[in-house]
Amino acid sequence: MDRRRFPRSRAATALVPRLSVAADAASVASRHALVIVELNGGNDGLNTVIPFSDVRYRALRPSLAIARERVLALDDRTGLHPALRALMPDWRAGHLAIV
C-alpha cells in the first residue's frame, strides 16, 4: 500500500479504530490534534526529534545529520527539525508532547 494514501484508507481506520473516535471528539470540542503514524520509509525519526547532544548522532549520520545550530531545541539534549518550527509555540505552551 502506498504510504501517502494509508492514513486516509479504511485499513488505517481498522488498525486504529479509536483514531476516528478521537478525531470526532476533537472536532466537537473545537480542539485540534496532530497524530503522526510512522511508517517505514515515511519518516526519519532521528531527523524529526533530533538527539543533538549525542555525539554518535553526527558520527553515524555524516551526510544526514542536521547541524546543531539549525535544530529547534526542546531541551538540552533533543530538538526538532527546522521544518517543524510551526510546532514550537505549541511545545512552549505545553500543548505538544513527544512520546
Distinct helical segment count: 4
Count of the domains? 2
Poorly predicted runs: 17-22
Structure summary, number of beta strands: 3
Can you tell me about this structure?
This protein starts with 9 loop residues before the first helix and ends in a 6-residue tail after the last helix. It is 30% helix and 6% strand. The radius of gyration is 16 Å and the shape is flat. By secondary structure, it is mainly α. Strands 1-3-2 form a 3-stranded antiparallel β-sheet, with no helix packed on it. The chain has 2 domains: 41 residues, no CATH class; 56 residues, no CATH class.
Question: Would you kindly provide a brief summary of this structure?
Answer:
The protein contains 4 helices and 3 strands.
What brief labels describe this structure?
about 100 residues, mainly alpha, 3-stranded antiparallel beta sheet, 4 helices
